[in-house]
TrEMBL record:
Coiled-coil region(s): 137-260
Chain ranges of the ClpA/ClpB AAA lid domain: 68-168
Family: Belongs to the ClpA/ClpB family.
Source organism per UniProt: Candida boidinii (Yeast)
GO biological process: cellular heat acclimation; protein refolding; protein unfolding
Gene Ontology MF: a single term: unfolded protein binding
Name of the molecule in the record: Unnamed protein product
This protein's GO CC annotations: cytosol
Gene3D superfamilies assigned to the protein according to its UniProt record, in alphabetical order: P-loop containing nucleotide triphosphate hydrolases (3.40.50.300)
Pfam families registered for this protein in UniProt: AAA_lid_9
Source species, domain of life: Eukaryota
Length: 346
């Protein structure tokens, strides 16, 4: 059975009799066409609901926004594709952090879309930084370029006086010294890049093998399926595990790793901070720590109102502990003389 899936199905609706929706109605009524359409609630009400004949041929199914736990599961399913696309390694902690931060701070968008974009942007940032030369390497190569220009200029005028010859010799010695310092850095940088590229290529090859296996299954090619599923894929997975263990071991040994190719919770928090304007420290601070220091934070903005600050903090802690109805809003009535709002620091 073939099922037709139409994304943004409201785009089929038109003003005339020759729109795509009218062309599909006879086949939908006879049951010769199996179709699934997707659209937003707003667009459904604006376009689809107005055409009762077209709407009756579909069963409406409301898809709710996934929870944080469900979003993490979705991100885990997408993780290999984003690792291959950006050529980076995405940690599970990054997926959990993305779901939590997107749910709490990117409220103008819905899960899992907001969390997926967080992971995508964080991975892209790491990939761009990886493809750029490390600061240490780039700085020394810039020094070499400047010295090359200086040496060429001094070589033209070396017969002018003794001081020029002396400066030329000093420049050559400095150039040689920096070149010697650069040699191990370049070797380390090339080695680290090669290791990450091999791991990325292995993951890309694994994805290609999965596609080939699925294609062979559709063609009922049992020999090819068996060869890929039981030999090629297991061997490649073992190689990927070895490469990941090797990269993790090297990163653990050396803190000054030149090629940063890992997307963790910190990178996701930095991306969220750029999108929201909230400092990274506040994004990554544990909720328990925020609840404990709530009076201190509020008192820094509200002066001389200890009782009010304490009442608000206690109400919030009561709600977060699960002892209050989470769907019931908190209502506070602050009473005071005219002008008392000036206790809030600007």
């Amino acid at each position: 059975m073939i099922v037709l899936f139409i994304d943004e199905i409201h785009m089929l609706m038109g003003d005339g009799k020759s729109d795509a929706a009218n062309l599909l109605k006879p086949m939908l009524a006879r049951g010769t066409l199996h179709c699934i359409g997707a659209t937003t609630i707003t667009e459904y009400r604006k376009y689809v609901e107005k055409d009762g004949a077209f709407e009756r041929r579909f069963q409406r199914v409301d898809v709710k926004e996934p929870s944080i736990r469900e979003t993490v599961a979705i991100l885990r399913g997408l993780q290999p594709r984003y690792e291959i696309h950006h050529g980076v390694r995405i940690l599970d902690s990054a997926l959990v952090t993305a779901a939590q931060l997107a749910s709490r701070y990117l409220t103008y968008r819905k899960l899992p879309d907001s969390a997926v974009d967080l992971i995508d942007e964080a991975a892209a940032s790491v990939a761009v930084a990886r493809d750029s030369k490390p600061e240490e390497l780039d700085s020394k190569e810039r020094q070499l370029n400047l010295l090359e220009v200086e040496i060429k200029a001094l070589e033209r005028d070396q017969d002018a006086d003794a001081s020029t010859k002396e400066r030329l010799e000093q420049a050559r010695q400095k150039y040689q010294s920096i070149e010697e310092e650069l040699e191990p850095i370049r070797a380390k940088y090339a080695e680290e890049r090669a290791g990450h590229e091999e791991l990325t290529n292995a993951k890309r090859k694994l994805d290609e093998l999965e596609v080939k296996a699925q294609d062979a299954e559709r063609r009922h090619d049992s020999a090819t399926v068996a060869d890929i599923r039981y030999f090629a894929i297991p061997d490649l997975k073992n190689r990927i595990d070895e490469l990941e263990a090797q990269v993790a071991e090297e990163e653990a040994k050396s803190e000054d790793f030149l090629v940063k190719n890992v997307v963790g919770a910190e990178q996701v928090a930095e991306t969220a901070a750029k999108l929201t304007g909230i400092p990274v420290q506040k994004l990554t601070q544990a909720e328990n720590a925020k609840l404990i220091t709530m009076e201190k934070e509020l008192s820094s903005a509200v002066v001389g109102q200890g009782d009010a600050v304490k009442a608000v903090a206690n109400a919030i802690r009561l709600s977060r502990s699960g002892l209050a109805n989470p769907n019931q809003p908190a209502s506070f009535l602050f009473l005071g003389l005219s002008g008392s709002e000036l206790i809030v620091q600007s």
